[in-house]
Every structure is written in structure tokens, then in C-alpha cells.
Write a structure and sequence with these properties.
The protein has 358 residues and is an alpha/beta fold. The protein has 2 domains: 3-100 and 348-356, Enolase-like, domain 1, CATH 3.30.390.10; 105-337, TIM Barrel. 42% of the residues lie in helices and 16% in strands. It is built from 13 helices and 13 strands. The strands form 2 sheets. Strands 4, 5, 6, 7, 8, 9, 10, 11, 12 and 13 form a 10-stranded mixed β-sheet that branches. A 3-stranded antiparallel β-sheet has the order 1-2-3. A hairpin with a 4-residue loop joins strand 2 (15-22) and strand 3 (27-32). Helix 1 (37-52) crosses helix 3, helix 6 (162-176) packs parallel to helix 7 and helix 10 runs parallel beside helix 11 (293-302). The longest helix has 21 residues, at 79-99. It is globular and about 60 Å long. The protein starts with a strand and ends with a helix. It binds calcium ion (CA).
Length: 358
């Protein structure tokens, strides 16, 4: 089998879908990070595509290395691994369709058929506490049994209004009660001292994990916060590849690792990062904001890790995106059921994809 065409398409839904076609008639699908749609689609089509033509799509690790080490001067943070991610996921999808097996089986077998998802609710920075409470109410109505609220401050807006953030967390805790796992994502918006004092107050109310309390590049700061608090502190959505996760673990030592399959280099690389997380006894809790291909690619890895039992990130269904698939992702009562179909378990309807293209 040979690769005949690699095609990335940027969609109106702010997604980048990768399709890889073969002379065998099998086609695989993948997804890249939604940041810089046009740049990513261009990178896949012009930098990676030509490297893959006439290659055997089943030799995934060889092709990953070929892509990485032919284009590394354009990386290794951001666009390069994000583009490779989309291609790598599509290659795994081809292997699954070729062998007739779901990706989780190819990775060694799934420990669970369905996964509890947490509602990942962002945009907290400009909101009043009661506005966030209404968003959380909506998520509970949709069936979510675990919640994370995200402030989206960013490292450039430090300690803007921690008192309001605390009031928001408290109001949401009062709404959901004590039994629902509730996490808080500062999106890198606190200084070390604010993160520690805020974290202690969250702990009194019950917090499930404290995400990215300080700037993502401040490894010493992440370490100080992690060591000061009992709540699991998480980091990793801004890291790419196993080498950066090694540095994160050695220098920042967070309790929870959060690689993102559409950013960190795809299924191949996330699997390697999962091995690191097991080696260092870290919680493996991927970051994921893409509700279709990205989510299933992530869950195919997560379900093969026995200790990865925490609820997984989900931003909720997007009907306009679900429409491009023959059988969309199944979310019910707070859970996603991993399809038993070959590959990712998703099949694209070409004309629907075309209609959604930018
Ligand atoms: Ca986050």
C-alpha cells in the first residue's frame, strides 16, 4: 500500500482535518490543533505531504521520524508538531482500517468501553460568578457529572482579579454540591504566591485538580506551587513531544500531565508521553478541545492506560461538526462510548466536509 495524497482542510468550525489517501482505497482521517488554521493546513499540504507520497502508511514510526527530522527547523514548539499530529492520527486510522481493528486494540487493548467526561467551560475572565453558574447549569442539564471552569487569563494578565475567581469557584461549588469533581484552570494567570494562597482556599471548598496556576514557561514556579499544595496541580497543554515532557517532569514536577494529541505530535507521541507518566507515577489527563476526531484519538490512547481513570476533558458536542461524520461521537449521561469500529471509528462524508471548508 502506498500513500497517494495528503490533504488538510481548514473548516468554518475552526478545525483542521487531515485526510490521507492510498492506492489501496483506504483513507485515514486526522486532526490538527485549531490554532492558526491556515498555517497548519499549509504546513501539512506543502511541508509534510510531499514527504509522504509513495510511502507505506503502515510504517507509522518511520514516517513520524521522517516528518520530524525533515522539518525540525520549523519547530519544535507549535506548528510543526501540531501538523505532524494530524498526519500521525490519520496514519493510525489507516492502520486500524487496514487491520479491521480499533486503534485502542492496536495499542494493546482498552481498559474501559466508556469514559466519564468533564465539561470544560472556558471564558471565565470577563464573566461574573453568576454568569459562570448559568454555564455550569447548562452542562449539568446536558448530563455532565464532572466540571472544570477555565479563566483564560493567560500569562500576560497576572493576578488581575483572584477574589472574583474565588467567588466564581465558590458559587459553582455551591451549585454542584460536594460530590461532583470540580476543577479550576487559571490558564497561567497567577503569580506563584497568589496561586498558593488561592489553591489553599480552593482546597477548603474541595477542588479536583488545579490547572496551570502559573505561567507555562515558569517550571520553577510550577514546582513551588505543586510542592505547597495538596491538590493535584496540572500542566502540559503547552508542551510538545516526549523531550519537552521529560523537562516538564524533571524541572516542574506537576502531579498531572496534560499532553494534547492534536498538538504534541499525535497518537504515536502521546503514547510515549503516557509511558513517561506511568514511569514517573503521574496522572495522565490529556488536554483536548476538539470534540470529534481529536477527542476520539485522545480516548483511544487514554483507555489503554490502566491508571488514567480521571474524567476526561470535553468541550461538548458541536452539531455542525457532527454532521460531517457517518456515525458521530456518542456522548450520553456524561460518558463517551469508544466505538468498536476499525481505526478511530469515524468516517467522513466528503460532500459535507466540502460544504464546511473555508
Ligand atoms: Ca487548560
Amino acid at each position: 500500500m502506498k500513500i497517494t495524497r495528503v490533504e488538510a482542510t481548514a473548516l468554518k468550525t475552526r478545525s483542521v482535518i487531515v485526510q490521507i489517501f492510498t492506492d489501496d482505497g483506504i483513507a485515514g482521517i486526522g486532526e490538527c490543533s485549531p490554532m492558526n488554521l491556515d498555517v497548519l493546513a499549509h504546513f501539512v499540504n506543502n511541508a509534510l505531504g510531499p514527504l509522504l507520497l509513495d510511502e507505506d502508511p503502515l510504517e507509522i514510526d518511520k514516517l513520524w521520524n521522517k516528518m520530524m527530522f525533515s522539518t525540525y527547523k520549523l519547530g519544535p514548539h507549535g506548528v510543526q508538531p501540531e501538523a505532524i499530529a494530524g498526519v500521525d492520527i490519520a496514519l493510525w486510522d489507516i492502520l486500524g482500517k487496514f487491520s479491521g481493528l480499533p486503534i485502542c486494540t492496536l495499542l494493546g487493548g482498552s481498559y474501559r468501553d466508556r469514559v466519564l467526561m468533564y465539561a470544560s467551560i472556558g471564558g471565565g475572565a470577563p464573566l461574573k460568578p453568576e454568569e459562570m453558574v448559568r454555564k455550569v447549569e447548562d452542562a449539568l442539564i446536558k448530563g455532565f457529572k464532572a466540571i472544570k471552569i477555565r479563566m483564560d487569563w493567560g500569562p500576560h494578565r497576572r493576578d488581575i482579579d483572584p477574589a472574583k475567581d474565588f467567588a466564581m469557584f465558590k458559587a459553582v461549588r455551591e451549585l454542584v454540591g460536594d460530590d461532583i469533581p470540580l476543577s479550576f484552570d487559571a490558564n497561567n494567570g497567577y503569580s506563584v504566591t497568589t496561586a498558593i494562597s488561592q489553591g489553599r482556599r480552593f482546597e477548603e471548598l474541595g477542588i479536583y485538580h488545579f490547572e496551570e496556576p502559573v505561567a507555562q514557561y515558569d517550571y520553577a514556579g510550577i514546582r513551588r506551587v505543586t510542592e505547597a499544595l495538596d491538590v493535584p496541580v496540572s500542566a502540559g497543554e503547552h508542551e510538545y513531544t516526549r523531550w519537552q515532557f521529560r523537562d516538564l517532569i524533571e524541572q516542574a514536577n506537576p502531579d498531572v500531565l496534560q499532553p494534547d494529541v492534536v498538538k504534541c505530535g499525535g497518537i504515536s507521541e502521546m503514547r510515549k508521553i503516557a509511558v513517561l507518566s506511568e514511569t514517573y507515577s503521574k496522572h495522565f489527563l490529556p488536554h483536548q478541545t476538539q470534540p470529534t476526531i481529536g477527542t476520539l484519538a485522545s480516548l483511544h490512547v487514554v483507555t489503554t492506560i490502566q491508571t488514567a481513570t480521571r474524567p476526561q476533558e470535553y468541550t461538548g458536542q458541536r452539531p455542525e461538526l457532527d454532521e460531517i461524520f457517518v456515525e458521530p461521537v456518542e456522548f450520553r449521561d456524561g460518558y463517551i462510548t469508544l466505538p468498536k469500529r476499525p481505526g478511530l471509528g469515524l468516517e467522513i462524508i466528503p460532500e459535507k466536509l466540502k460544504a464546511l471548508a473555508l
